[in-house]
Known about the structure:
Layout: H1 2-18, E1 24-26, H2 32-36, E2 43-45, E3 50-55, E4 58-63, E5 66-68, H3 74-81, H4 83-90, H5 107-111, H6 124-138
Parallel strand pairs: 1-5
Antiparallel strand pairs: 2-3, 3-4
Helix pairs in contact: 4-6
Amino acid sequence: MLYGWLGFHKVLNYFLISRPLQVVARIRPQNQLESRRGGSNCVELISDTELQVAGDDGEFQFTFDRVLGPQSTQAETFECVAEPIVGDVLKGYNATIFAYGQTSSGKTFTMEGPSITDSTMRGIIPRTVSGLFQGVAAADTNLEFTVKVAYIESMSFA
């Protein structure tokens, strides 16, 4: 029983100390429709960990583990968000990448990308799957892997 607890304690320490939950915000640029209609940017990148939102009630600053600006690429987003997780999964840990945001905020663009065949535009999901299977192919032949992937999209229309 003590060995099981020590094993759990090691895993708990790994995730709480080495790789805690990370919250990353990605600011999307204005789209063509917003620009044509004279829209203005209401979210501003302050630093790589802070952003500012301007609204009718004033300006508000928020701090995250990382903030990716409107010029961030799909590759930069993957390297920041998912690449470390791929390594953890190949070590046997479970992982979740959770995208949350308002309609048209860029979740699908970030997670899937507009094109799975264009290597520069592929999103987190196709890059993660590629990274996992490259890692499996490069692993010791005595290791056995079982890969299970779930993709859930939930929408709420209020």
